[in-house]
């Protein structure tokens, strides 16, 4: 359990110590937690199966997120602007996991909706009929829902709620780039959005990957990552590579997914995938994809740097991308979306990538409302291993 606690402790001012107000982690039926501090001893269950390698760290981190005050993302009061909820596809005894909060109960601290956080359910989570329970308004995010990673905005919200940012006066703290913020336990360095690193968030993160220079003609990036000998056994830890595609100042970058290895597609891309960050908002999780059917999906950046993050915790996967700069109009690039088919009941069906098994456990939205409420026995098929990018 200590390594699970470390995930939130690592990137905030909060430390988990034994005290009168404390969390008791124990084994009961399912994986669940109350939302926010109750006072005194507070229970958090990690029952049978919660520590399975296919879920591992992400379930524990998700439940700890509840304990420190985070709701499900899909329960935010403003969620209807970002997802379409198909409640008639949800198992009746799971509907409370999708209850929309009000502005009175849900303080998001001005932080925008992020489809890529660990507190967000997958598109088919809690389905009672195999059909999707929710679809993002930006359908290119369909595979991002159900993420195995804590998002930068979730870390930012926790730090804001507990006033950790106040530990670092602006005059004496690191001047973070790319919308990072000073680390509350070491104000001389920054906590960075995914895809950015270094003390000031102005460098490519260390490790595999490299800086690529875009030209006016298509160039190709081929990334191979993973363990060739692993078979279908999932590891706890991700291998992660970070690339930067750079272009001249004032230009934009077009990125097209050419191909991706078959066999790992699932809600949230929990085993392997590629994240492409083209938004103007550097803090927002990028688009994650992990299916061969994504081939041809094209993105246009809002700046002259595009971080590309590949990750894997199973057998070897290959990502092939093409990129170039100089295309300045979105009208000139393909707007192909993920392969979503509409049935007679107007429900999206993902024939190549629907979940066939569901395990129960707990989850909720990253809104730092501290009302005591128990959440558990939720559908977390897509919430797997968590490591901070």
Automatic annotation (TrEMBL):
Keyword list, A-Z: Disulfide bond, EGF-like domain, Glycoprotein, Hydrolase, Metal-binding, Metalloprotease, Protease, Secreted, Signal, Zinc
Record text on cofactor binding: Binds 1 zinc ion per subunit.
Ranges where the Peptidase M12A domain occurs: 1-165
Cofactor: Zn(2+)
Molecular functions (GO terms): metalloendopeptidase activity; zinc ion binding
Pfam family, one: Astacin
Keyword ATP-binding: no
Catalytic residues, chain numbering: 63
Subcellular location: Secreted
Lineage: superkingdom: Eukaryota
Listed GO CC annotations: extracellular region
Residue stretches making up the CUB domain: 208-328
One example of a Gene Ontology biological process annotation: molting cycle, collagen and cuticulin-based cuticle
Location (main, coarse): secreted
Binding site for Zn(2+): 62, 66, 72
Entry keyword Cytoplasm: no
InterPro entries according to UniProt: Astacin-like_dom, CUB_dom, MetalloPept_cat_dom_sf, Metallopeptidase_nem, Peptidase_M12A, Peptidase_Metallo, Sperma_CUB_dom_sf
Protein name (Swiss-Prot/TrEMBL): Zinc metalloproteinase
Organism: Ancylostoma duodenale
């Amino acid at each position: 359990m200590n390594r699970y606690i470390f995930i939130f402790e690592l990137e905030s001012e909060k430390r988990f110590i034994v005290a009168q107000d404390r969390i008791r982690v124990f084994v009961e039926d399912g994986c669940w937690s109350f939302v926010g501090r109750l006072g005194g001893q507070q229970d958090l269950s990690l029952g049978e199966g919660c520590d399975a390698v296919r879920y591992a760290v992400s379930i524990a981190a998700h439940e700890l997120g509840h304990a420190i005050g985070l709701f499900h993302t899909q329960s935010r009061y403003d969620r209807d602007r970002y997802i379409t909820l198909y409640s008639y596809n949800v198992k009746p005894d799971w509907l409370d996991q999708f209850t929309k909060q009000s502005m009175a109960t849900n303080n998001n601290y001005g932080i925008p909706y992020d489809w890529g956080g660990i507190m967000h359910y997958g598109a088919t989570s809690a389905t009672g009929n195999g059909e999707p329970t929710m679809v993002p308004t930006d359908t290119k995010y369909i595979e991002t829902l159900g993420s195995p990673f804590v998002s930068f905005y979730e870390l930012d919200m926790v730090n804001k709620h507990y006033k950790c940012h106040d530990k670092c006066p602006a005059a004496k703290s690191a001047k973070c780039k790319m919308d990072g913020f000073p680390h509350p336990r070491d104000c001389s360095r920054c906590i960075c959005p995914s895809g950015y690193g270094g003390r000031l968030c102005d460098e490519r993160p260390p490790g595999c990957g490299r800086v690529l220079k875009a030209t006016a003609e298509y160039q190709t990036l081929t990334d191979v990552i993973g363990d060739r000998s692993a078979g279908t056994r999932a590891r706890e830890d991700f291998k992660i590579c970070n690339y930067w595609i750079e272009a001249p100042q004032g230009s934009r970058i077009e990125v097209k997914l050419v191909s991706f290895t078959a066999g790992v597609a699932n809600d949230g891309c929990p085993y392997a995938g590629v994240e492409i960050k083209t938004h103007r908002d550097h803090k927002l999780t990028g688009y994650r994809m992990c299916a061969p059917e994504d081939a041809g999906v094209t993105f246009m950046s809002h700046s002259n740097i595009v971080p590309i993050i590949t990750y894997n915790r199973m057998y070897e996967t290959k990502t092939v991308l093409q990129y170039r700069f100089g295309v300045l109009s979105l009208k000139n690039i393909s707007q192909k979306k993920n392969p979503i088919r509409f049935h007679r009941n107007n429900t999206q069906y993902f024939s190549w990538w629907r979940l066939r098994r569901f395990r129960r456990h707990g989850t909720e939205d990253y809104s730092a409302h501290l009302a005591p409420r128990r959440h558990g026995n939720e559908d977390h098929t897509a919430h797997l291993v968590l490591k901070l990018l």
